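Note to self: keep these together.
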Amino acid sequence: MKNKDSEYIPKLEKAIAQKYGAEAIDNPRKFWTEKKEEEYVQQSKLLAQKIRKNETQGEKIELDGFLINKKLLSKDTNRICTVCKNYSFDMRDRLYMNKFSTCRMCYVQWIDGREKRWKNGWRPNKEE
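Structure:
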């Protein structure tokens, strides 16, 4: 890219230096030393060790002939209501599924206000 103004780059550097300071236009190699290089290499080695340790440390589970990290598997949740036997796609049912194994509608109809009876083992009859 050729500019008509041959003084464009020096003007740009001067403007940057005025706005951000003289260090902004200096070559980064000017501030790099052997000591900093050694520290950087050491930090890189430590990071690589941590990454390798975490990769090998994860608990593996065999699934269909493959070893899979346990953290990658989603928790298998039962989304079928024990009362109406419908599969719930509604995210609002998660609370009721976890606590009572029912969908929100069955909770409202059979459990709401009668939690003690439900926890004691009462369940609605098939005729109800």
